[in-house]
Design brief:
This protein starts with a strand and ends with a strand. It is an alpha+beta fold. The longest helix is centred in the N-terminal third of the chain and has 13 residues. Helix 1 runs antiparallel to helix 3.
């Protein structure tokens, strides 16, 4: 299995509460729509000790499932919105 973790900060013009809720809804809404996507959770209630404002934590069956997720139309739609409100993206993928 592959753990896929992504974290962002919000752009200055973003509304963290509203935009964070929309990111959470878009990404968590992918559950059950993409083969091999086993878990997906977005965290918006990060502690002040964090250096990112929002985190995606997801689990994929294998590398092929992760590769299929990236161009999936629903993921692309979410990513397009995220790109309008978020910055400083970091990503970590690893075998679990």
């Amino acid at each position: 299995m592959i753990r896929h973790i992504v974290a962002w900060n919000f752009k200055e013009n973003a509304n963290p509460k509203e935009d964070g809720a929309k990111i959470k809804a878009l990404l968590e809404g992918l559950a059950g729509k993409i083969d091999g996507l086993l878990e997906i959770k977005v965290h918006t209630n990060l502690l002040d000790t964090s250096n990112r404002a929002i985190v995606l934590n997801s689990l994929f069956a294998n590398e092929e499932a992760l590769a299929a997720y990236k161009p999936h139309p629903e993921h692309v739609r979410a990513a397009e919105f995220i790109g309008t409100v978020a910055t400083d993206r970091i990503c970590v993928d690893y075998y679990e």
